[in-house]
Amino acid sequence: MVLIISFVATKTTSSTERQAYVIHMDRTKLPPAASASASTQWYESLINSVAETPSQDHEEESSSPELLYAYNTVVSGFSAKLSASELQSLTKTNGFLTAIPDEMLILHTTHTPKFLGLELGKGLWSPSSLASDVIVGILDTGIWPEHPSFQDRGLPPLPPSRWKGQCETATKFSLSNCNNKLIGAMYFYKGYESVAGRINETVDYRSPRDSNGHGTHTASTAAGGLVGSANFLGLANGSAAGMKYTARIAAYKVCWALGCTNSDLLAAMEQAVKDGVDVLSLSLGGAPKPFYNDNVAIASFGAVQNGVFVSCSAGNSGPASSSVSNVAPWIMTVAASYTDRGFPTTLFLGNGAKFEGSSLYYGKSIKNLPIVYAGTAGGKKQGANYCINGSLDKKLVKGKIVVCDRGLNGRAEKGQIVKSARGAGMILVNGDRNGGEEMLADPHVLPATSLGASAGKELMNYIASSKAPTASIVFRGTTYGANAPVMAAFSSRGPSSIGREVIKPDITAPGVNILAAWPPVTAPTQLKTDKRRVLFNIISGTSMSCPHISGIAALLKSTHQNWSPAAIKSAMMTSAYDLDNTANPIADLGSSSSVSATAFAFGSGHVDPERASDPGLVYDVSTEDYLNYLCSLDYNATQMSAVLSGKSFECPEGSDFRPGDLNYPSFAVNFKRGGGGRNETVRFRRTVTNVGTDVCSYRVKVEEPVGVSVVVEPEVLEFGRLGEKLGYSVGFVAAAGGGDSVPAFGSVVWSAGKYSVRSPIAVTWEQQ
């Protein structure tokens, strides 16, 4: 058991600039005073022992760091803002493990419940399931407490007895803002202010109140209450509901104008676990790094050990390979995909050609207006093709449709710049490497549509070949029934660059054009010049798919209260589907060809909540399993201790446990390309737990990846009771001289009656 503390220096008397670090310490090697909860004096002594001596020119100034946070549940050590020499002195302290620079992380539903198969009064939305008290912790930009999505009508009068949290009073936030729905709200800012300076309260609230909108949106997606007649400016009309709409919400504000610091995030995770949350939802992330250097991974491991399910967004850096973040195997990593709901437009060109686009503009169509682009829109001004600020000539643009390339500035911002230049409309064109064929619907401030890269090329050819090009844009409102799901191009992809023996992301969920709650003081575009105000907004990102999984985890926790976080995760993964609503493989907008989506895009597939509630078998993972996995990565004692919050663990000598033996619900297999002229064999072990019917017999079916043969032993698993655990092994054999630079995919499926328990296989070939 170890303690973490955060410090920040408000003044420095050294010419050496201080930097914030998260320091991991081994409490077992610290004096008793350091392990006590009231250990201020000991830490002040530690601070003084490493503080730089003031220079003569600044003797009147204090160089002592300021204590920020103390943690003792999910992480261990302390965080501080230190100079290089102070950090060097600190490394000599008994119990020092490692120092990780504090970093700034970035933020990565009227219809989605129906799309996911959730129905009022049935299954996971039955009265018995919804009655179970589950607490979802949202770590984000805060919350707008007065929103109808957070009213507490129909909820029990008191939160669960295990709840230990509070409603923090601060700017524009009081105790009365919490209720039996929003049972806790806190804000964490000291790490952020140590990096970015004091929060500008004309822009944001120095309190749990949300001015950005992101946190309000994610909270309502996971656990917002039922709200009738929800819509965005008349679009997507219906009843809004979070996945577990009767769950309690605890909001922890950790993200501000420039992002979210690790030190604040760790403080919030620490507090949330102490408070008694069941689920933690983090729609944020940074660059992937080894788990012993990844503060989110370390804190999440501590949370999972305390029985808390942790879901994180995969990131919005797709379709680049190995762009996925939040890849620790104890985290549920969530990709983003489309539902069958769209907001289409039709673009008609003067030559008779027509193309489909997308837009959240809700108004009259524009017809037969002149088109201008680049030089015809900006003259000799630079950047007119991107419609950046100051690049457009009002005389050239007035009353015309302006074509804008994606990139350099925001999509909605381009529309505002066109409008300010008196343009009548905008066509936002993707490039091959900037959006591709993905057409996101944006809340434009003027008539505007997105256009895919291939259609954009035809548009450019028309503009170049016509002396007076014209266009019309028709806005078709809200439509349903499109082929779905489809993987979003922006959704970050595997294979994981850290721990390639685990497929990441784990799963996909709705993350495109998601309607959810929004602060009534914030414009839907977040632009200062946008004076529109809405109660619900439609936005996209893995930030939106993550809270869907968080809410579904809360539903499963309600139904299976004794399931571990790993069992809940397994249930969702093995019941996920990889075919769309036309029974064809799920498509991928990030693919340059017609190839369907793979496990590196969607993990195990698209979440199916009702099937996940009765999965038949689960792959459970104990703390010891995770530790053996870390040992198999050749982590040394210091690295192991960092992940374990300062606890020690001695890796067993002579163990034959390999990274691929982690009891994970998927198989990532890495072969050497060429194989040295002989067959190469990899064998993994798995254990499944029967959670379906008492007596049952499961038979295996294998879909082999191209170039790899797969042998499962035994081929039949005979269960005699619920809770029984049975093991099996899987052998993967690559033929001599085989191997390709292109990954190959398959699956292992255990079937018994109504149950079909599927685990994807992903094979990669590495250069020898």
Automatic annotation (TrEMBL):
<keyword id="KW-0378">Hydrolase</keyword>
<feature type="active site" description="Charge relay system">
    <location>
        <position position="214"/>
    </location>
</feature>
<feature type="active site" description="Charge relay system">
    <location>
        <position position="140"/>
    </location>
</feature>
<keyword id="KW-0325">Glycoprotein</keyword>
<comment type="similarity">
    <text>Belongs to the peptidase S8 family.</text>
</comment>
<dbReference type="InterPro" id="IPR003137">
    <property type="entry name" value="PA_domain"/>
</dbReference>
<keyword id="KW-0732">Signal</keyword>
<dbReference type="GO" id="GO:0004252">
    <property type="term" value="F:serine-type endopeptidase activity"/>
</dbReference>
<dbReference type="InterPro" id="IPR037045">
    <property type="entry name" value="S8pro/Inhibitor_I9_sf"/>
</dbReference>
<dbReference type="InterPro" id="IPR023828">
    <property type="entry name" value="Peptidase_S8_Ser-AS"/>
</dbReference>
<dbReference type="GO" id="GO:0006508">
    <property type="term" value="P:proteolysis"/>
</dbReference>
<dbReference type="GO" id="GO:0009610">
    <property type="term" value="P:response to symbiotic fungus"/>
</dbReference>
<dbReference type="GO" id="GO:0009609">
    <property type="term" value="P:response to symbiotic bacterium"/>
</dbReference>
<dbReference type="InterPro" id="IPR023827">
    <property type="entry name" value="Peptidase_S8_Asp-AS"/>
</dbReference>
<dbReference type="Pfam" id="PF00082">
    <property type="entry name" value="Peptidase_S8"/>
</dbReference>
<dbReference type="GO" id="GO:0048046">
    <property type="term" value="C:apoplast"/>
</dbReference>
<feature type="active site" description="Charge relay system">
    <location>
        <position position="543"/>
    </location>
</feature>
<protein>
    <recommendedName>
        <fullName>Subtilisin-like protease SBT1.1</fullName>
    </recommendedName>
</protein>
<dbReference type="Pfam" id="PF02225">
    <property type="entry name" value="PA"/>
</dbReference>
<feature type="domain" description="PA">
    <location>
        <begin position="369"/>
        <end position="459"/>
    </location>
</feature>
<dbReference type="InterPro" id="IPR036852">
    <property type="entry name" value="Peptidase_S8/S53_dom_sf"/>
</dbReference>
<dbReference type="InterPro" id="IPR015500">
    <property type="entry name" value="Peptidase_S8_subtilisin-rel"/>
</dbReference>
<dbReference type="InterPro" id="IPR041469">
    <property type="entry name" value="Subtilisin-like_FN3"/>
</dbReference>
<dbReference type="InterPro" id="IPR045051">
    <property type="entry name" value="SBT"/>
</dbReference>
<dbReference type="Pfam" id="PF05922">
    <property type="entry name" value="Inhibitor_I9"/>
</dbReference>
<comment type="function">
    <text>Required for arbuscular mycorrhiza (AM) development during AM symbiosis with AM fungi (e.g. Glomeromycota intraradices).</text>
</comment>
<feature type="domain" description="Subtilisin-like protease fibronectin type-III">
    <location>
        <begin position="661"/>
        <end position="763"/>
    </location>
</feature>
<keyword id="KW-0052">Apoplast</keyword>
<dbReference type="InterPro" id="IPR000209">
    <property type="entry name" value="Peptidase_S8/S53_dom"/>
</dbReference>
<keyword id="KW-0645">Protease</keyword>
<keyword id="KW-0720">Serine protease</keyword>
<dbReference type="Pfam" id="PF17766">
    <property type="entry name" value="fn3_6"/>
</dbReference>
<keyword id="KW-0964">Secreted</keyword>
<feature type="domain" description="Peptidase S8/S53">
    <location>
        <begin position="132"/>
        <end position="584"/>
    </location>
</feature>
<feature type="domain" description="Inhibitor I9">
    <location>
        <begin position="21"/>
        <end position="108"/>
    </location>
</feature>
<dbReference type="InterPro" id="IPR010259">
    <property type="entry name" value="S8pro/Inhibitor_I9"/>
</dbReference>
<dbReference type="InterPro" id="IPR034197">
    <property type="entry name" value="Peptidases_S8_3"/>
</dbReference>
